[in-house]
Amino acid sequence: MKIGEIAGQIGCSVETIRFYEKEGLLQKPLRNTENNYRHYDQVHLDRLRFIRRCRSLGMTHEEIRTLLGAKNNPDGCHAINDLVDIHLQHVQHRIQEIQALEQELLLLRQQCQGSSEIEKCGILKELERETDHVATADAVHSGQICGHKH
Asked: Which domain of life does this protein belong to (predicted)?
């Protein structure tokens, strides 16, 4: 298969596949000697599906790399369980932060009923007020939770 064909089957862009190759998550395919096109096979397709599934669960490239390495480790799945447990803790923490953000937005929304002039808008006045919530909101928006980039 050519790169465009495999991208179509997986539902991702050609650039994403090249990025996974560059990151070492996907082995670079052999090139056709006649036309120098990359030739992808079923192994590449299966690996891309695995990577895409992990990404859909919010796993980092490093976590995926660890899982891919563990597939060849005959020592059992304790390390895999540990990795998923840690990832789950990060997800639970993100959920708590997003729920706190939701509450803050609901409170903010109550500051203005839309009938005031813009100069009297409670939402704008509240946003102009200094708070310590900025760092938390920045962390949620950037995906950095507990020093863990997603």
From this structure: Bacteria
